Amino acid sequence: MSGIIKEYRLRRKIASYNHIKALPVYIILGIIFMISFIQVIPEIVEKRIPIIPIPSIIVLAILLIIMVSVHAYSSLLRKVTRISVEDDDVRLIGGIIWKYDRKIPYSHISEVSIHRGPLQRALDLASIWIYTPGTAGVEAVIGPLDMKDAVAFKEGVRDRVMRSQSFLEVEKPESINVLIDELRSMRKLLEEIREILKSRNR
Description:
The protein is α+β, with helices and mostly antiparallel strands. It has six helices and seven strands, in the order βααααββββαββα. The chain has a four-stranded antiparallel sheet with strand order 1-2-3-4. It has a three-stranded antiparallel sheet with strand order 5-6-7. The model has no long low-confidence stretch (mean pLDDT 82).
């Protein structure tokens, strides 16, 4: 059973990251709220009654619900997501609705890279992309992690991958020698059987 060498978690910045990603929705709802409110300003001035139109109240309620949901989602995502570098593989645990628990052996990993978009650079975050030979694209996308965690994760995984490949290279000649010895034993056995058959035919 493999042990955990290093475990990584999502930082609190993930909430800001998700809020900024949802910013276009916030802006659209804010514009709709302002338009619906501006339409009743003449009535408010004329009657001198501070009223808020029902459409504006509905839009404001939707906006608040989305903002609270994004924050709650980010907090829950931080709690359930675990990325760990273990003795034999990388383990990914997470999922809010659909749970997952994946292991990617070091022997299957061909490349580990760091990717940062403009938003991630602004928040000092980064995503990790893991590639394997058997997939046409990316095997797994991890993060966004804090930049220093992403660098440490990449270096740790690459180190384990190189060790795994070195181990396989060392073991390969020995396995070939064992195969050659077995083939020689089989050949010798076949020659003995042939001699026995010859002697019987005489």
